Amino acid sequence: MQALAPVWRHPEFQRGARDMTGIALGVGAWGLVTGVAMIKTGLGLPLSLMMSLLVFAGSAQLAALPLIVAGAPIWVVWATAACVNLRFVIFSAGWRPYFGHLPRGQRLLLSYFTADLNYVCFMRRFPQPEPSPEQLPYFWGGVAVNWTAWHVLSLTGIFLADRIPTEWGLGFAGILALLGLTASLLSDRATWVAAVVAGCASVAAYALPLKLNIVVAIAAAVAMGILLDHMQPPAARKVAP
User: Fold this and answer.
1) pTM surpassing 0.90?
2) Which residue has the higher pLDDT, 26 or 149?
3) CB under 8 Å, gap of 24 or more: what pairs does 129-136 form?
4) Among 120, 195, 223, 239, which residue has the fewest nearby CB atoms (within 10 Å)?
5) Distance, CA of 2 to chain centre
């Protein structure tokens, strides 16, 4: 934790913050929608605040909310949230060559702040999987902007949910924001194929109860991703980020 004191003065901290600033608006818009949704579904102010600050995963929060409202078994809620967040297991594996040498406590702290787009920005900045002194400041610069943008607007949505009319179409705006975030992750043929398979599986399983079509879609995407990875030549797997 001693390294965190001067980290904000590092040039890479400022670069990480700049790289995230351009996409912080989309992150914040999705946070606003999530905050409003938690209150509108009757979760209540204390639980909404706790869920926003502790869970810090908009897609998992929105997937769990209708299950909670419908009175789904707790194991279904946990399983759905875990499946939605399976991508963070992949992110953790990707970050291991960069941060695996750090103490466990520091790695746990990093894991809380990790998010989709700061992972993308980090991998673009440091394509070679080897540690360097610039990586930690860059990471903190990106997550500082991402975490702040998310929580400022998520908490705004929570506290002002009753004053934000549903006629504003925030749900649709949130969908557009999420689509924009998703599209930025589709960087090659494999991710496009997995995304299309997930979409088709979600539509095909839409009639399942308790929003289980989300779980089906994620399982289909993961299976397709694994299949495409094994179909790649060994040399191609080594250079993939």
Assistant:
1) no
2) 149
3) 129/94, 129/97, 129/98, 129/241, 130/97, 130/98, 131/97, 131/98, 131/99, 131/101, 134/10, 134/12, 135/12, 135/98, 135/99, 136/3, 136/7, 136/99
4) 239
5) 28
Q: Is the dihedral of CA 218, 177, 57, 87 positive or negative?
A: positive
> What count of residues does the chain have?
241
Cβ contact 93:226 at 8 Å: no
Tokens of 199: 């979409």
Residue with tokens 């929060």: 61
Question: Distance of alpha carbon 210 from its chain centroid, rounded?
Answer: 22
Q: Which residue has the tokens 């540690």?
A: 131
Query: Residue 40 in contact with residue 162, Cβ under 8 Å?
Result: no
Among 21-25, 182-186, 234-238, the range scoring the smallest mean pLDDT is 234-238
Q: Other CB atoms closer than 10 Å to residue 115's CB: what's the count?
A: 21
Kindly report the three-state secondary structure assignment for every residue of 68-118.
HHCCCCHHHHHHHHHHHCCHHHHHHHHHHHHHCCCCHHHHHHHHHHCCHHH
pLDDT at 241 over 60: no
Distance of CA 15 to the CA centre of its chain: 21
Arithmetic mean of pLDDT, 191-199: 88
Residue 231: pLDDT band with limits 50, 70, 90: confident
Tokens of 139: 């990471």
The chain-wide mean pLDDT, for the chain, equals 82
Q: Would you state the pLDDT for residue 31? A: 87
Task: Give the pLDDT of residue 239.
Answer: 40
Q: Report the distance separating Cα 138 and Cα 125, nearest Å.
A: 9
